[in-house]
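Posting this for the archive.
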Amino acid sequence: MPELPEVEVTRRGIAPHIVGQIVKRFNIYHPTLRWPVPKQLPKLLAQQTLLDITRRGKYLLWQFANGTLIMHFGMSGKLCMTDKNSKRKTHDHLELLFSNDCCLRLNDPRRFGCVLWTTQDVAQHPLLVNLGPEPLSKNFSVKYLQQQMQNKQQTIKPFLMNSAVVVGIGNIYATEALFKAGIHPELPAKKVTLEQTQHLVAAVKQILRTAIHHGGTTIRDYLSSSGKPGYFSLQLAVYGREDEPCLNCGTPIVSIRQAQRATAYCPQCQKMC
């Protein structure tokens, strides 16, 4: 599933080519995604200039004078920059063609992504209004995280993945951040110490920035808008390395299940306090 770094890499990759350009055509080939793609979008977007494209958590926000397009990639979605005359692929569900002939197609084999439209304040949209702070912002601080963890019995790994606490930290990056901070993934959030919180906030920010720098993480099918894989997968310390030696101490990496997701950790470097 594309996480924050993959979405941010996509945004940075396409923004220079399409911001300031006029939508010449918006084609809907398969309207049935997580929710139906609004039928009126081709008319609403025709001849509209894209003013900006921003990101909130794992959502891309396409800002036009008459409203905002909200896009989420779901489990397997990606935006592909392609030639307008190229043959459409099986899972290409919609297409945006701009005045500079830049063509973007949304490809989503599992159809868990979404493309929605709002004319209201996008920050108040039901999908966005309850989201926590951006992890790379000043709002995601040691003080903030400590306050959120008070009296929380939930273990720290799924707690960190809760988008109401902080957005965009999915399974891969939560796993890697906890390893870097030396925190056992099954430690209850309320038992995380001040020192551990300091390490964790720093680890989250560093790992996300590094992942963005390396183009995200390709585990199965993620590719950037230009068709390139993400190379942060080469720097994964514990995720996907079950039974392999820890890069710090040599202890075999252990894998457990938490909230129906795989969690890898080093039992030596991430001891339960």
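Residues 218-232 have pLDDT under 50 and may be disordered. Residues 59 and 127 are 9 Å apart (CA to CA).
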